[in-house]
Specification:
elongated; alpha+beta; 6 helices; Alpha-D-Glucose-1,6-Bisphosphate, Chain A, domain 4; 6 strands; about 180 residues
Length: about 180
């Protein structure tokens, strides 16, 4: 029995993987010496849309792409690439996580410069704990309809808690931009 437990623990450790950034790191901001800003902006918008981010239109200014929040992919959504790494996949499977991406492209010398920023947030929904035993029994009274129970529980206030920047996804977006422009 003991060898099976060791094998399962080893398999779980291997499946979890590392939580490190990719070895092929790109500078953020990245500079493209000979490519004009309009071309970089078009490629960046395409990359964001392939990741299922929806750009906010109309844009605030030329060269600045901001997206609506996108709920992160769970482990069973293997076709989506917006959740990078085993740790983030597990996190998105256990919590409601969303990301917002912004890309700023500006002219620099004879080329352009791109800055990618992805902010990650987790939904916090405090529980609706009853104040007494009587209240807890009333929440699930057989005379109440499901709709009434849902309305009683709907008073829960939720908020998005910032988890900081998602450097792994930022690097992936930069990697895709570089790959398409070179």
């Amino acid at each position: 029995m003991r060898p099976i437990a060791i094998a399962l623990a080893l398999l779980a450790a291997l499946a979890a993987g590392c939580h490190t950034a990719p070895s092929d790191r790109f500078e953020n901001p990245s500079t493209f010496a000979t490519i004009e800003a309009a071309s970089v902006e078009t490629v960046a918008r395409d990359v964001l849309m392939e990741l299922r981010f929806e750009p906010i239109v109309p844009e605030k200014s030329k060269g600045f792409i901001e997206t609506y929040p996108l709920t992160g992919a769970s482990w069973f959504e293997f076709w989506r690439k917006d959740t990078r790494g085993a740790y983030q996949s597990a996190e998105a499977s256990l919590h409601t996580v969303r990301r917002r991406a912004t890309v700023a492209v500006s002219p620099k010398d004879a080329g352009s410069q791109v800055v990618v920023r992805v902010v990650k947030e987790r939904l916090s929904a405090p529980g609706t704990s009853p104040e007494s035993i009587g209240q807890s029994l009333n929440l699930y009274d057989v005379e109440d309809t499901d709709l009434v129970r849902r309305d009683a529980l709907a008073e829960t206030e939720t908020e998005w808690i910032s988890l900081g920047r998602d450097h792994l996804l930022e690097q992936y977006i930069l990697e895709q931009i570089h790959a398409r422009l070179h």
